[in-house]
């Protein structure tokens, strides 16, 4: 995960204004020469065939000069702090019946276009707010605002994902109404966002038919963490050699409970199912809030 990808030097910006470093564990620092680990060439294949598996160690990752044990300690410290913030976010969302979704995908999967269509369909039925995550620019947030929903852009700089502390600060600035829908469009990346809980009700993975059927096998952590997969851009299927059943089978090999909706923001295919799924989630969030409030009312 991102103990090795450069996120430690990330800088967060809200609408172009720099915020202090807020990555959970951002104060953790290390120097690459501390462990003295050297990569051995003895295990490399002597010819061009075979596989080099640098994810086989205890940390599930590799970085020159950092031992597996140290990487595990760094990861645990970062995730523990993030999980504390995520728990606070989830308590806040539950208390206000906010249905929060963490939308994750590769770059270019069609997340933002799908959000624009979703907002157009639901904005008169419920309050909606959007958090946009990108390394740079506020282009996506501008598109969302033009669609009719308040949107706050988070620029992560070198960071490759949002974290729970970023989301907490964004929610404060959005001043969300109770019983709202919160759509969090994460940075385009199928690796690091899988490991970071934001306090959302569900991760929704958007998988485009232009990406190849085996994407779930290549990036299993994200598909394992997701509660819903949107197989997007299905309007392009007549022009592609893409096996829908094979792709869904691969995804469910990783996550047998994964719900799947085939969808297109262009043709409208699957939109009714997607919107119904959201509406059901919002109703459930309100039911949970009510059930939590009733005992307090009795005690009061």
From TrEMBL:
Location of the CobW/HypB/UreG nucleotide-binding domain:
102-261
Q: Which Gene3D superfamilies match?
A: P-loop containing nucleotide triphosphate hydrolases (3.40.50.300)
> One short Pfam family name for this protein?
cobW
Family matches, as InterPro entries: CobW/HypB/UreG_nucleotide-bd (IPR003495), Hyd_mat_HypB (IPR004392), P-loop_NTPase (IPR027417)
What does the record list as GO biological process?
protein maturation
Q: Name one GO molecular function term.
A: zinc ion binding
| Record keywords, A-Z | GTP-binding, Hydrolase, Metal-binding, Nickel, Nucleotide-binding, Zinc
- What family is this? Belongs to the SIMIBI class G3E GTPase family. HypB/HupM subfamily.
Question: What name does the UniProt record give this protein?
Answer: Hydrogenase maturation factor HypB
Question: What is the source species?
Answer: Candidatus Nitrotoga fabula
Quote the gene name from the UniProt entry. hypB
